[in-house]
Amino acid sequence: MKPVIIAVAITGSLPRKADNPAVPILPEEQIRSTAEAFEAGASLVHIHVRNDDETPSSSPERFGIVQAGIQRLCPGMIVQFSTGGRGRDPSQRGSSLYLRPDMASLSTGSVNFPSIVYENQPPLVEQLATQMKEHEVLPEIEIFDLSHLHGARRLADKGLLGEHPHIQFVMGVKNALPAEERLLDLMLGEMRTLFPHATWSACGIGANQSTVMRWALVRGADGIRTGLEDNIRLSKQRLAASNAELVAQAVAEIRLAGRVPATPAEARKTLGLRSA
Predict the structure, then answer these.
(1) Which of 42, 59, 79, 225 is the most exposed place for a label (fewest CB within 10 A)?
(2) Residue among 72, 69, 76, 64 nearest 276 (CA)
(3) Strand intervals (E) in the chain
(4) Tens digit of pLDDT for each residue in 59-69?
(5) Which phi-psi region, left, alpha or beta, contains residue 17 (left: φ > 0; alpha: ψ -120 to 50)?
């Protein structure tokens, strides 16, 4: 079977503090953590950046520093910027796309999160999709709800998204898409109707991480996602592991499924990305 792309979401937008002390915040911490995850088998990194006070940032300078460090230490690794909205000014969410990362996340609809509404109004979604197209950045379509697949289809119909998108199902966010196996099958069926040529991956939040990973692997997913953004605890007794340790666990799950982790070159080929 085809190699599996391991994406590592190293930081996220939640504060570090006591519950997740291993989350890398400063650019040098993020670069080091990504390099360790790369050595463990990750071929794609999903990046949020923070200010020195740990609040979410849209700083192109910080994105650029992290991107350059990863390109230096992790040859060929796919760099994906977050354009997510928690704690960021909507007008600034695409401000770093001119740096031409390989990919950027794109949410195509709004959704309830545990304590906020993750707001993605249609004009903003179209603006971000337009910027990604202009800078030749491949969107990763983040699916938190069935309607978001249809939001992606509308972008494609307007020429803002190709017919071979990369789609990621995010399962287990409280108030959003539950982590239930039958729902993954439902979403996959709808995706294959709307985008027959899409590549796809899935991630589970918190305690759902390994479970969703296994569901995706047996269904032939092109990729899976792990990392401290999604899972800051391994158990009630143990605080967060490193990103590298979570990647090592993902590698083990891939091998148990009879598959192998993708190299960066293989990951780029699967996603149709330019060579490093």
Answers:
(1) 59
(2) 76
(3) 5-9, 44-47, 49-50, 56-57, 78-81, 103-107, 111-112, 117-118, 138-143, 166-171, 199-204, 223-226
(4) 999 999 999 99
(5) left
Instruction: Name the domain count of the chain.
Output: 1
Q: Which two tokens stand for residue 43?
A: 């071929």
**Which residues of the chain fall below pLDDT 70?**
14-20, 232-240
User: What is the rounded CA–CA span in Å between residue 267 and residue 270?
Assistant: 5
Nearest alpha-carbon partner for 231 in 209, 253, 201: 209
CA distance 262 to 56: 30
Q: How far is CA 255 from CA 106, 147, 208, 215, 252, in A?
A: 30, 33, 19, 14, 5
Q: Which CATH number does the domain housing residue 198 bear?
A: 3.20.20.70
Show the tokens assigned to 205: 């939040």
- Span 175-234, pLDDT tens digits: 999 999 999 999 999 999 999 999 999 999 988 999 999 999 999 999 999 999 998 654
Any domain includes 242: yes
CA angle 196, 187, 128 (to 5 degrees): 75
Is 76 part of any domain?
Answer: yes
* Whole-number Å distance between alpha carbons of 159 and 166: 16
- Report DSSP state, residue 161: S
Taking the C-alpha atoms of residue 207 and residue 247, their distance in angstroms, rounded to an integer, is: 16
Q: Is residue 276 part of a domain?
A: no
Tell me which amino acid residue 148 is. Answer: H
The answer to whether 264 and 75 have CB atoms below 8 angstroms apart is yes
Structural domain boundaries, residue 252? 5-271
**pTM across the whole model:** 0.95
In a domain, 142, yes or no: yes
Dihedral pair phi/psi, residue 208, rounded to 5°? -85, -5
